[in-house]
Design a protein that fits this description.
The protein is an alpha/beta fold. It has 19 helices and 20 strands. Its EC number is 6.3.5.1.
Length: 574
């Protein structure tokens, strides 16, 4: 058996850090070469980071990325490197380069450009049309980029018919709940249908609201995963493949033979012959398959990764959080400590006359459990001063949400004062349920530079808190058990003003993520008036969501790039 050794370099690239990404790529090439790797593959647009967005409209950015590609080629000696970059001809292309012994041997341009959800590639790139196959000692290797492999009719079909034993698929595939299994199931089908092994390498790390989960893997022609990397961590996944065994399997199956009999080579197919001899190896690398995560563990790691990278990649150091003694601020603070360390997280208690003794105790207990520094800034006197100044204008009017929002805005001002004075970034603590129905105060509890739980439903907040407490019980049990309340007026309870969250979240999910009509939601057993009320709240609060801080996306349809509703909009569902 001649072992062909591949390495999948699951790196955390930073958008725009061309020099830093280049150095990281070179470092991984050197590590792979020490392990006698024959071919190393890097993620999609590894040099520029993903997504570079309007940086792609800057010619200087594109030129610098091409200079970096050449620098990487010079370091790719006695090893084949496949690196994602931006190519430039008459237009620009999302591309993969094949590097060997100081030269760019071949280039492949992405054939299918995604333009849905968070993707906007048609805005920037020209679609490629060529299909590249590498030939090395008679063995054939195909190449593709991310979206290319999601279509049943894709470059892999032709590469398999042309005799490829292996296809390298490089990716920047963002995470959302369920994406890992969906991706793996699809690639297993592609491998089985084409009698080919597929090596899938994915980006890892946070980029604004996106989180990339890694989970790079190799699947064999029978659809079995034979090697898999870590989730949400940089990794170098090394596998030894028996390309002869794959060829023998193809010989015994008539499907490819029948397709080849009808196949006429297309002009767009380019076969590139590599002057490379597979290295002799005396030891086989043990196949490594990282265990799958539970959903709660997966989401929690995504939130930790997204927060850590947003803070570090934007050159912040410390964060500050308003601690209310409630579940949202407790979970946000816990994630922040896990992401950044306790010394980089500050908590602020801002009690009013409506704040319960239990909430203060719970906030202080949480801070003690996490080991973070806290400050207590009571707002009662400030609130009374506001009311005194406004009394002449409000004369004769009953207290309402105005007075509630005043308290939230006082707290927002205090947090921003600490942010300005010390350079701490404020973390907003609102969740997706609140953001959906507008149960949040502009310039109050919506204040912040980053919203960790922005795409996390309230019911999921409790699941994540329980998961984290199963590791070490840092969130006080009473926080998990007491009814959630904004504590902006006497005896206030969230669910009295909204609905029980288990019902509210289902309605929001169906309307926001599934686009199910009010009538059809009601037919599923929900009270019609409650459904209509929730939908009205969602529709009329688009202006608030547009002003909310960026937050981590963990669902298939987060607010922002996924769901793009006009603010000025007279269409109503009901």
């Amino acid at each position: 058996m001649k072992k062909f050794r591949i390495a999948l370099a699951q790196i955390n690239a930073t958008v725009g850090d061309l020099e830093g990404n280049t150095e990281k790529i070179i470092e991984f090439i050197k590590r792979a070469r020490e392990k006698d790797v024959d071919l190393i593959a890097f993620p999609e647009l590894a040099i520029t980071g993903y997504p570079p967005e309007d940086l792609l409209l800057k010619p200087s950015f594109i030129n610098k990325n091409l200079q970096c590609l050449q620098k990487i080629a010079e370091e790719s000696k006695n090893i084949i490197s496949i690196v994602g970059f931006v190519d430039r001809k008459d237009d620009i292309f999302n591309a993969a380069a094949v590097l060997l012994d100081g030269k760019v041997i071949a280039k492949y341009h992405k054939n299918f450009l995604p333009n849905y959800g968070v993707f906007d590639e048609v805005r920037y790139f020209q679609r490629g049309n060529e299909i590249v196959i590498l030939n090395m000692e008679g063995y054939k290797i195909g190449m593709s980029i991310c979206e290319d492999i999601w279509y049943p009719e894709n470059p892999i079909n032709i590469q398999a018919i042309e005799g490829a034993e292996l296809v390298i698929n490089i990716n920047a595939s963002p995470y959302h709940v369920g994406k890992v299994k969906e991706r793996e199931d699809m690639l297993k089908v592609r491998a089985r249908d084409n009698l080919i092994s597929i090596a899938y390498v994915n980006l890892v790390g946070g980029q604004d609201e996106l989180v990339f989960d890694g989970n790079s893997f190799v699947v064999d022609p029978d659809g079995f995963i034979v090697s898999k990397g870590k989730a949400f961590e940089e990794d170098l996944v090394i596998s030894d493949l028996d390309l002869d065994a794959i060829f023998r399997k193809q010989l015994k199956d008539n499907r490819l033979r029948n397709l080849r009999a009808m196949y006429k080579r297309e002009e767009r197919v380019t076969e590139v012959f590599l002057d490379y001899r597979i290295k002799d190896k005396f030891e086989t690398i043990p196949q490594r398959i990282e265990l799958d995560l539970t959903e709660a563990e997966e989401v929690y790691k995504a939130l930790v990764t997204g927060l850590r990278d947003y803070i570090h990649k934007n050159n912040f150091e410390k964060v500050v959080i308003g601690l209310s003694g409630g579940i949202d601020s407790s979970l946000t603070a816990t994630i922040a400590v896990d992401a950044l360390g306790k010394d980089n997280v500050k908590g602020v208690l801002m009690p009013s006359q409506y704040t319960s003794k239990e909430s203060i105790e719970d906030a202080l207990q949480l801070a003690e459990n996490l080991g973070i520094q806290t400050f207590t800034l009571p707002i009662t006197d400030i609130f009374e001063k506001y009311l005194s100044e406004l009394k002449p204008v409000f004369e004769g009017l009953k207290p309402d949400v105005t007075e509630e929002n005043l308290q939230a805005r006082i707290r927002g001002n205090l947090l921003m004062a600490l942010s300005n004075k010390f350079g701490w970034i404020v973390l907003a603590t609102g969740n997706k349920s609140e953001m959906s129905v507008g149960y949040a105060t502009l310039y109050g509890d919506m204040v912040g530079g980053f919203a960790v739980l922005k795409d996390v439903y309230k019911t999921k907040v409790y699941e994540l808190a329980q998961y984290r407490n199963s590791i070490s019980p840092v969130i006080p049990q009473r926080v998990l058990e007491k009814p959630p309340s904004a504590e902006l007026k006497p005896d206030q309870k969230d669910e009295d003003e909204l609905l029980p969250y288990v019902i509210l979240d289902e309605i929001i999910y169906m309307y926001v993520e599934e686009d199910i009509s009010a009538e059809d939601i009601a037919k599923k057993g929900f009270d019609k008036k409650s459904v209509e009320r929730v939908i009205k709240m969602i529709d009329r609060n688009e202006y608030k969501r547009r002003q909310a801080p960026v937050g981590i996306r963990i669902t298939p349809r987060g607010f922002g790039k996924d769901r793009r509703m006009p603010i000025t909009n007279r269409y109503r569902e009901i």
